[in-house]
Amino acid sequence: MSTPKCPICGRPAAPRPGNRAFPFCSDRCKLIDLGKWLGEEYRIPGPRAGDGADAPARPEEREDDEP
Ligand SMILES: [Zn+2]
């Protein structure tokens, strides 16, 4: 098994027993990743419009509700 790389800095990330920040190499990189999430730099790969959900796929049409 190869050592996984930290997705933030690319350095080898130590395995979990001794690295509570896994899969990051350190708490610092873990916090950087968290900051990216909070800043919405990352897109959450969740369900998209047209994926079976009945959420409005075309927000523009909602303007029809206005008089
Ligand atoms: Zn790192």
UniProtKB/TrEMBL annotation:
This is Uncharacterized protein. GO terms for biological process: regulation of DNA-templated transcription. Keywords: Metal-binding, Zinc. It comes from the Bacteria. InterPro entries: DNA_gyrase_inhibitor_YacG, Znf_NHR/GATA. It comes from Anaeromyxobacter dehalogenans (strain ATCC BAA-258 / DSM 21875 / 2CP-1). Residues 42-67 are annotated as: Disordered. GO terms for molecular function: zinc ion binding. Residues 45-56 have a biased composition (Low complexity). The keyword Metal-binding applies. The keyword Cytoplasm does not apply.
